[in-house]
Amino acid sequence: MSEFTHTTFKATAAHEGKDLYKKNQIKHIDIAKMAGIVPLVDSMQHMAFSGRDLYRAAEIYERAVRDTDTAIILTLAGSLISAGLKKVFVELIRNNMVDAIVSTGANIVDQDFFEALGFRHYIAEDKYKSGMFDGELREHGIDRIYDTFIDEDELRICDETTKLVIDELEPRPHSSREILKAFGEHLEKNGGPKCDESIIYECYKRDVPIFCPAFSDCSAGFGLVSHAVARGDQPRASWDGGKDFLELTQIKMKNAETGLLMIGGGVPKNFTQDIVVCAEVLGMDAPMHKYAVQVTVADVRDGALSSSTLKEASSWGKVDLVYEQMVFSEATLAVPLIAGYAYHKGAHKGRAGKKFARLYDMASV
Q1: What is the pLDDT of residue 306?
Q2: How many other C-beta atoms can be found within 10 angstroms of the C-beta atom of residue 223?
Q3: Is the dihedral of CA 308, 310, 312, 313 positive or negative?
Q4: Contact 179, 169 (CB under 8 A)
Q5: What is the pLDDT of residue 361?
């Protein structure tokens, strides 16, 4: 059980013997130790296909980081933290290479907050990827994320912990940014330095706001529902999606020049691209996002939002065409190269954090 909370949840007897599935932990890749990455990525500019695309994406992201007038927004979709990319994003936050994050709830709550509570993800043996043993996994309380395992009993503790955090909130509508700040405060009070490899905790310490525009689609949703039922007709805390949109748009209105590093697509991608239009609706002559990089495996032929190109976004007035690049690659391959390239080129040196979380401390939004 997590050292940070005292919960009522107890594992069932049927879930005993699960240590068989928890032998090998997922280890997060460390871009700070990736010596030689710059010449590797530089050499890709002379290649074709995705290699050349990846080089250009890395060069655009490095350029955006060096442009100190630009606010960089990182968007996360897909199962990225469980896959071993958490430390990459922590390193970007720690070195002022990200000024705000827009993510799925799963990445931030079910995976990052989950690990900050002391739990881990585990490597699945090859045979389990077939799906033939999912019934067996269910019997032992093991959830499968592609080729990765997560302990269902530990995940339930994460669910309960989200309720404990929400129970402490003022009984009113909150943005996901406000609620996740409270998650950071919980880690500060109960874990402190033990959580140093957490995205939520690193953002809390550095005033980097996190938004989850589909916030209830994760453990936080269970926490919100449990909190609401427990409060009944009494005043309660709730999540306000409209407030999310306003708060994220205020970043664009505060800092007109923006750049996007988008991993995956979906709601985080569209939500973040849309703040240009929202700022215009609110009366600002907002420029399009100046820099944009997207890493995705979505196929442009299937009509999915995740695969809609950045050039297409330009037709909507969202993304400028000068510095934009799609990289059609799986994230665990491309992200360490793109992020590591900018890091080892020293693009972040001399760059101060925007500390946008302080925007909301100064005025009611």
Answers
A1: 80
A2: 24
A3: positive
A4: yes
A5: 81
Q: What is the mean pLDDT of each run of 10 residues along the chain (365 residues)?
A: 46 69 96 95 98 98 98 97 98 98 97 96 95 95 96 96 97 97 96 89 98 91 94 96 97 98 96 97 97 93 78 88 96 98 96 96 57
pLDDT at 12: 54
Whole-angstrom Cα distance, residue 187 to residue 204? Answer: 9
Q: At what angle do helices 86-94 and 199-206 cross, to 10 degrees?
A: 10
- pLDDT in the model for residue 364: 47
358 neighbors 181 (Cβ within 8 angstroms): no
Neighbour tally for 37: CB within 10 Å: 21
Residues whose CB falls within 8 Å of the CB of residue 207, separated by 6 or more in sequence, listed in order: 353, 355, 356, 357, 358
Instruction: Answer for the pair 219, 109: CB distance below 8 angstroms, yes or no.
Output: yes
Distance (Å, whole) CA 139 – CA 15: 7
Main-chain dihedrals φ then ψ at residue 265, nearest 5 degrees: -140, -120
Give the active site residue among 181, 252, 318, 345: 318
Residue-range domains of the chain with CATH: 24-362 (3.40.910.10)
Burial letters 108-121, b for 16+ CB under 10 A, else e = bbbbbbbbbbebeb
CA angle 339, 112, 244 (to 5 degrees): 85
User: Tell me, what amino acid is at 163?
Assistant: K
Nearest-angstrom CA–CA distance, 148 and 199 = 20
Strands (E), 64-217: 71-76, 100-103, 122-123, 142-145, 148-151, 173-174, 210-211
Clarify whether 181 is annotated catalytic: no
Which positions ≥6 away from 185 have C-beta within 8 Å?
204
102 vs 80: CA distance, rounded Å: 13
